[in-house]
Amino acid sequence: MFDNRETGASMIQTKRLDPASFGSFGHVARRGEGLTRSIRAGEVVLTRSPACFPHDHTACDHSLDFYEVQPASAPFRAVQAEQHPNSAQMFVPMRARAYLVLVWEGDPRDGAPAHAFVAGPEDVVIYNPGQWHHGIVALGAPALFASTMWRTRGGVDVEFAPLDAPLAVDLADHLP
Questions:
Q1: Domain parsing of the chain, residue ranges
Q2: Which secondary structure element, helix H or strand E, spans residue 146, and what is its range?
Q3: Which of 31, 53, 137, 139 gives 98 a disulfide partner, CB atoms 3.0 to 4.6 angstroms apart?
Q4: Would you say 176 and 100 are in contact if contact means Cβ atoms under 8 Å apart?
Q5: CB of 118 within 8 A of CB of 15?
Q6: How far is CA 155 from the centre of its chain?
Q7: β-sheet bridge partners, residue 138
């Protein structure tokens, strides 16, 4: 991370999303990564992903949401983070060229470092319960995502935290 003196925002570089580098924040699921087998007389290859979808006992209603996301423009600046304390949250790209996955190692209000990953259309991202992250950001073209998580009946499923200073993400290599 370095300081962008012009804007006063910290700027971080992106790296390609991969299961190993994202492992402490959640899980990256892809076809072919897990137990695979041929079914229906060889017409289908089934991958049983090792991904798990943890949640606590208060999150008992499974939800499915759709996000239609306009592409980000440069420079991109994050101004808030969010977390879902009771459930993992999964994003499945239905139509996406690329997207930004921005996470913090801890609570951003305490100055936790951020990490920026660029995911492709084949990457399913599952955030761990309580993982601080930015909302989904499309890169290069409008995108459509399905998202699923477990919700509590009391409606306390998300916590938002404004950032003390905007966090700029270097997207120069990812935008047209």
A1: 2-170
A2: strand 143-152
A3: 139
A4: no
A5: yes
A6: 21
A7: 71, 99
Look up residue 59 and give its amino acid. Answer: A
H-helix segments, the chain? 19-22
| CB-CB contact of 52 with 34 (8 Å) | no
- pLDDT digit of tens for each residue in the chain (176 aa)? 433 434 455 789 999 999 999 999 999 999 998 899 999 999 999 999 988 889 998 899 999 999 999 999 888 999 999 999 999 999 999 999 999 999 999 999 999 999 999 999 999 999 999 999 999 999 999 999 999 999 998 778 999 999 999 999 999 877 66
Estimate to the nearest angstrom the gap between the alpha carbon of 39 and the chain centroid.
31
Q: Rounded to whole angstroms, how far apart are CA atoms 90 and 93?
A: 10
Q: Is the dihedral of CA 15, 19, 20, 25 positive or negative?
A: positive
